Amino acid sequence: MASYDAPGIPPRITLYTNLDCPWCQRVHFVLSELKIPFEQVIIDLDVPRPQWYLDINPRGLVPAIKFSNDVVTNEIIYESNIISQFLVDLRPSNLLPASLADPAAPLRRAKIQFFIDTFMGKLGGQWHAVLRADNPDAKVDEVLANVEKFIEPLLASAAPFYDDSKELTYAETQVAPFLLRIYSLSNGTYLPTKFKTGLQGLPNFSKWAAAVQEHPSIKSNYNETSVLERTGKMMAKLKAKA
């Protein structure tokens, strides 16, 4: 990985992760785009968490990071959005400007957070509901209507990334794991194909989504085959319990 070029002692980061977890992928996307080196420890989510990990994170969840630099040693940070925010604040970049970088920076940061919140509420958090719905087609219609009403207008200025940006932004790193899953799973087996085709029919959304999917920091950290396999196992367990 490329070296970290901030002044002082380079940060030492250990990422506790699972490569199939969408919340972990948020952090992987950020680390990849910022080119911050890190050590990786894979946590198996299919078995009870070992005590050594519960000692690090009593919640037993992933992701978590252990962080050290010339000021702090072995600080533990939990939760994907908090870790991601910490990393972009650690190294301001095209992803997210520092709060005082220029007079427009606070507004840009607020707009990015608003987009993430809107996306997760109207789309990113809905694919599981579609997956489990008694009438998936009706649920997809409801979700697509909300995407057209609330998300499509926010992407009118995408160029091709959010808010007239030619480079990847923090917004994409936080919503891409869910965007990619919806596209991967809309194959008629897990999610109705109309889910993907409906999104592709929205001009602003489809142009933006295509750019997100092809960005190297996103594409290199997403394994569609593995996601499909894990979803298949999850659905089999749900059917067995029904």
UniProtKB/TrEMBL annotation:
Quick one: a GO cellular component term?
cytoplasm
Give the GST C-terminal domain ranges: 105-238
Q: Per the database record, which ranges form the GST N-terminal domain? A: 11-95
Question: Which residues are the signal sequence here?
Answer: none
Q: Which PROSITE patterns does this UniProt record tie to the protein?
A: GLUTAREDOXIN_1, GST_CTER, GST_NTER
Q: What is this protein called?
A: Glutaredoxin
Q: Which organism is it from?
A: Macrophomina phaseolina (strain MS6) (Charcoal rot fungus)
What lineage, starting at the top, does this entry show? Eukaryota, Fungi, Dikarya, Ascomycota, Pezizomycotina
